[in-house]
Amino acid sequence: LKEENALLRSKINKLQILSETQADKMRKLEKKLEENKIKEEKEAQDLEAMVQHVEQNLQLMTKRAAKAENSAAKLRQENAQLQAELRNSRLENEALRAGQAGLAAAKQNAEVALQHLLQVTTSSRASIRQLLSGAESLQLVADLLKSIDRIAEVSEDGQ
């Protein structure tokens, strides 16, 4: 009975040691489980924070993209207006060049007309001088005729 008792005690001691070992393992595993839970919670929080940060960045990028699209639309519209203005300016420039060509032709015609007027003026002056000279000659002849009439009257009286 003593042997059996000793054997049972030995088994109980072994079981107690095994139980303590398993209890230690259990405590270590529980501690590790708790650490893993804390670690997972921290990772989950970090992941949540990162997701929120990514969402904020996505919202900012969406706003920037919308602004860029609006800006691009405005720039396309402004470009179209500037293209239209450029076409109008080119047409106006061509019209002005055509007008300048007409103006150059008119200027040349005016120059030719001026030359003709100068020639006519010169010719008219010469004609006027001739007329004046002729008028003076006629005046001289008229004066001579008057003188002859007086001479004739004096001669008739003096005969």
Textual characterization of the structure:
This protein is mainly alpha-helical. The chain has a domain at 1-111. 99% of the residues lie in helices and 0% in strands. It has one helix at 2-158. The chain is rod-shaped and about 225 Å long. The mean pLDDT is 89.
Number of strands: 0
* Apparent shape: rod-shaped
Distance between the termini: 224 Å
Q: What class would the helix/strand composition place it in?
A: mainly alpha
H/E element sequence: H
Q: Percent of residues in beta strands?
A: under 5%
**Count of helical stretches:** 1
* Average pLDDT, all residues: 89
How would a crystallographer describe the biggest sheet?
Answer: none
Q: Indicate the radius of gyration in whole angstroms.
A: 65 Å
* Unreliable residue stretches: none
Question: How helical, in percent, are the residues?
Answer: over 70%
Keywords: Coiled coil
Organism: Leucopsar rothschildi
Protein name: Endosome-associated-trafficking regulator 1
Family: Belongs to the ENTR1 family.
Write the layout of secondary structure elements.
Elements: H1 2-158
